[in-house]
Give the backbone structure.
Amino acid sequence: MAKETKLAANNVEKNMNLDEKTANVLDVQDMYLYFQTGKGIVQAVDNVSFALERGKSMVIVGESGCGKTSLGRAILRLLPENVYKYEGSCLLNGSDIMQYDDERFRKEIRWKRAALVPQSSMNSLNPVLKVSDQVAEPILIHDLADNKEQAREKAAEAFKKVGVPVDFLNRYPFELSGGMRQRVAIATSLVTDPDFIILDEPTSALDMLTQANIMNVLTKLKEEIDISFVLITHDVSTSSEIADMAAIMYAGQIVEFTDAYTFFGTPLHPYSERLMASVPTLEADDEELGFIPGQPPSLINPPEGCRFAERCEEEFELCSEEPPGFEMEDDRIVKCWLYREGGERDANYGK
Amino acid sequence: MPTTENNLLLQAKELRTWFEIKKWGFIHVGHVRAVDGVNFTLERGESVSLVGESGCGKSSLAKTIMGIHQPTEGELIFEGNSVDSTDEQSMRQYKSEIGFVQQDPYGALPPFMSIQRILEEPMIVNGIKDKDKRLKRIHQVMEELKMTPVEDFLKKYPHMLSGGQQQRVVIARSLVLNPKLIMADEPVSMLDASVRVEILELIKKIQSERELAVIYITHDLSTVRYFSERIWVMYGGKIVEQSPVRNLLKEPAHPYTRALLEAISEPDADNVHNYKKVPSGEPPSLLNPPGGCRFHPRCEYMIEGLCDQEIPPDFQLANDRLTACWLFRDEEEAGDVAL
């Protein structure tokens, strides 16, 4: 506790902002994350902007290799060695956390304000430590508890929130089933009471029934506590369980950012449209599923202009230039020339 | 081989595959009953989906059908002949009639072999000595799979191909011996969403062109409808429901099937406000499965004294459906049991 007061005293001005309840919990502007590799520079996140309102949850949908995991890591500054370019601004509760140095970011932001449930997190637990120690670890590191006992109590609380029996605290990870381990991973991110949690493919390795169970847990958490989820997934159907907003990512860029009703009902960007058409459903009576011919472009030397142009049926001469994000009604943003008038899409544009 | 009057390709009778568990290598602990009393019939040219959660025994069943595991009990009948797993000669013939499409294409293709060598291998093993004949078949299969120009691919190595192309090579390899049955074990789960449908369409096309029987193993119920006519639902080492896909999706009979359907998310923004109805508990351990119906500890319609005591047989319902659930002991149609 003493340590925390000292820290707070050091950064009085900016720290106060972090507790402020701004309208947007997260506001990412012009985020870039490029990697240096032997083959060239990979533009994993290329000029991405979005804003997430307080109390809402969003989903980042995209195919593998479109940069969605990199975007999540860029927000939390969990970066590998070979970063070539990392800039932009990321406002958390109104203060720009990109300006923080690494140590301050670690101490004040990561896990305290923004936590991560990593990909295949059920396998990320340490096999030789009891789960209680692993869940309590963030509390002890961030000095949020006076002693180990208190930390354990907090861990038990987190267990209750995600629906794991409290007596599982003394178990080792191998004594838990896949669904339970996934819940433990979620509990680990919840335990410090962050403002938002980034969930990277939280259900993709799980079975149908377990998947539904985890989604129920997330829905419940959303209702009960003041938290925002950023769900990163390629599975459009499951993402609809907790998403209020949807960001559709293609080749390192967000091509559409809109509320869930528009996305699941009438997606605007041609890529979102085709993506939705390729989602298998139980109820519809269509015999054929749509698919998008071709491959997503390489992020090393991506095509100039619209990155989806070569797979797009509605490509026309403007598409050789990169479209800006056109703002539509209700703050929807669509990165496609078809919407340059800002309103309805005109089918004749392409002809 | 005698010609069968009917169209039956493969039949399983009370098929059981148990794996022995030993402590310290010699103390007998028990058996994992991965496949425990499975009955089914498969017709020529028919496409069936085998659906179940991980650990329910679906891969063990597939491997038993392919002759990789020896069944502990029961019988497999292929084209009217019982499959004798002790006779090496007939087993080799039997295995060549079944093609296998693996789940992970990259792991299934040896990295040090060229595509040509990979595709030739099954034919070399099965004694096709004429190289021109082998190449001719490879060309034919590759063209069928739209991997043209064929020559460009043959000299390449697996790592030079994209995931979708690798999976096509795996499919090509399963087809070069002109099998009668293809076993596809989650063929698209490792692929990207946009490529996935393309590969499924391809398998579907080949299936109808070659009149192949296909067993498509998956845990994803939502793709099944686009792919096959019939579905087998597996739970705890047993097939609990067999039905035409459309009937099952409209009117699931077995409570487990209902739970599975309930758990599937549809892309709908209203989902945010709803909870899913999910049965409590976990799938049973196959080492010590619960007595009676394997699903009874998780089933909300459990009948005391019946479901927990006796194993339900397959009850025949209308529309060519079978379900192993006591609720249907007097009923003829899935809709008759109001739950």
Notes: Residues 219 and 242 of chain A are 6 Å apart (CA to CA). DSSP finds eleven helices and twelve strands in chain A. The radius of gyration of chain A is 21 Å.
